[in-house]
TrEMBL record:
Keywords: Coiled coil, Cytoplasm, mRNA transport, Nuclear pore complex, Nucleus, Protein transport, Translocation, Transport
Localization annotation: Cytoplasm; Nucleus, Nuclear pore complex
Function: Required for the export of mRNAs containing poly(A) tails from the nucleus into the cytoplasm. May be involved in the terminal step of the mRNA transport through the nuclear pore complex (NPC).
Top-level taxon: Eukaryota
Name of the featured protein: mRNA export factor GLE1
Organism, as annotated: Burhinus bistriatus
Family: Belongs to the GLE1 family.
Keyword Transcription part of the UniProt annotation: no
Predominant cellular place of this UniProt entry's protein: cytoplasm
Record's GO cellular component terms: cytoplasm; nuclear pore cytoplasmic filaments
GO annotation, biological process: poly(A)+ mRNA export from nucleus; protein transport
Keyword Glycosyltransferase: no
Amino acid sequence: AGSQLKEIFDKINNLLSGKSVLTGGRTVSVTQHPQGLDFVYYKLAEKFVNQGEEEVASNRDAAFSIAVVASGIWEMHPRVGDLFLAHLHKKCPYSVPFYPALKEGTSMEEYQRMLGYQVKDSKLEEQDHFLKRMSGLIRLYAAIIQLRWPYGNKQGTHPHGLNNGWRWLAQMLNMEPLADVTATLLRDFLEVCGNALMKQYQVQFWKMMVLIREDYIPRIEAITSSGQMGSLKRLKQFVEKCLQQKEMPLPKGALQSSFWRS
């Protein structure tokens, strides 16, 4: 509910502002240690990213409630935003977007970690699980760039607004696609952020969508094996439907104004 989110936001904001906060039965304050605030900034940013790869990965609609809190905290405490991007880019290089290249002298295990895979005891996580986590992270990022905390002063601009989404999309389309990964994340991003980008960029946005259909999807197709067609098919259908209807649907789970009265 909106009232619960406000409670969570206020508690985090109070903690970062140096006030005493009751948690787990004890009172804590960042002033209790000279590095207290730095530590809390770091851990909070890390927790936001973890929620992307865990909660949003298993419940896509959760992206918006987590993102609106993260966006508001970022606005009031810019350091959290810098650290959030650092954690996000490390866990999901595709959020830059960047595809690390295999360099001489880098072990295969190390390289897989650079690509965002979890490697435990030399065992690589399954592709499905990997894609699910990356989806969660991209969806959280795509939600943050379009949302603002409704109780803020709204005077300044968004600390990391929609122009970053436009840049991400443009850079993504300038890169050689990766089988499975590119199609999955492109669809995730468009599903969450497409409606906001359409409203902001209008004609330019539709040109970009035509480019995806005419030029980029065939490029993904060219490197996709028959066993990996699922994500490509879903992207294709989504883009086709939006172009036919000349409409980007409002994302599922988006917070309506009535939410804040709950």
